[in-house]
Amino acid sequence: MTVRRRTFLQLLGGAGLAAALPGCSLLEEQQTGEMVPSRARLPRRFSVPLPVPPVARPVRSTAEADFYSITQRAADVELLPGLSTPILGYDGIFPGPTIVSRSGRRTVVEHRNELTVPTVVHLHGGHTPAASDGGPLDLVLPVGGDDGTFAVHEGGEVTMGRREYDYPITQRAATLWYHDHRMDFTGAAIYRGLAGFHLVHDDVEDALPLPREDRDIPLMLVDRSFDEDGALQYPAVDPMMHDQPGVDADHLEGVLGDVILVNGAPWPVLEVAAVRYRFRVLNAANARGFELALRPNPARGFVQIGSDGGLLEAPVEHATLRIAPGERMDVVVDFTEFAPGTEVTVVNLLGSGSTDAVMRFRVTRRQSDDTAVPARLSEVKPLQAPDEVTREFRFLRRRLPGGQGWSINGLTYDPMRVDAEIPLDRVERWRLVTDVHHPVHVHLDPFQVLRRGPHGPGPYDGGWKDTLDLRGGESADIAVRFRDYAGHYVLHCHNLEHEDLSMMATLAIG
Ligand code: C2O
Ligand code: CU
Ligand code: CU
Q: 213-365 falls under which CATH superfamily?
């Protein structure tokens, strides 16, 4: 039995298990991790209004590009009412400012590091040349310079104080996010606040009658744990984030918190009109998986219109929405049938106690609605993958000299080693195999799911994916093709504690 006791009990407590039981073994895991209980007094749920992160304004624009500037700095912010929480923030806020790009228009983001530790910025889901992809060794050192307290690995492209990330944005409309990606410390850095949205729009999306503007709302879901004084409690081996990677022995499976934050607010509430809304749901948690459901449930539930890599071909209705760390689900929720005064709660079937709900909508008024979810959304051309498996990646627990860690094909991450050489523009069939639950993420280009276990793709596997929610003991085939940009990229588990404890591999592309 690979399920840790507490995770297992948590599953038993969740209604999700009952739903998942028929035909599945009890070993099927939906998340791994151990709780860090908060010591702070938790606020009453559904009382804080939902914040929406501010949209960044370009510092300048040319005929072909927009230029942004973001300062990474420490700040004290109010996440729990009445308490002050020290964070590491893009522009000192959590989530960071949302960057909005137009497909086909270059976006250049200068990051200035005013923190005391090195950082790396990765645009998750971005089709980005290697130099701007945010490789784990490509550190941006603090503006204050290298004081000798932190590890700088050989082989990275290190810059002093600042770096320009140059994004061609030649991809279709999609919900991307940017976050820290420093080798060994990604879990700690994101936990403390280094994450934000980056949205891409295009003409295909604009031509659809979907809800837009203030009815197109990004929702960043995380779980956190708070100390009495409001400080975040991350069980790092090296809380200063200098050179010792990892978390204490109790949390090697992943760090779970008991406070659910949406866009940085605990269990917030959003007032809505009785019309359709589009929500771009991002699971930015370190290890927690969510299975969301609406109570009461509108007739069509969640109407999924997009996934990691943008719009689906056609909408898919879900009674529940399963989302693993790193994944995005673009959904439309129709509140039309609810009378003003109705409260619609987003519950989490994988949670228990304080984590069994995420947020709430309060229907306050009727309003006319000229939006619609068309039967056809976009074109998703299937990749023609070979029948034979081109390569296999096995995501496995592994003993390390200092304790337990995580491996891919039995190997822990070594940035100096190339794990796979992949030609450009060739469609490959990859087999991904797991021991326990692992959300697997591939950089550079999205993929398509061909098969999950003995069946075809699962209900959430449609369209273009860059992160695949693989349960324990599962095997899936994906069709992968890298269009362009030769260079070194990574493939890793997006459970950030697994990633930092070496569940990462290097792909030499082209
Ligand atoms: Cu969202 Cu390589 O990460
Ligand atoms: Cu990524
Ligand atoms: Cu993992």
A: Cupredoxins -  blue copper proteins (2.60.40.420)
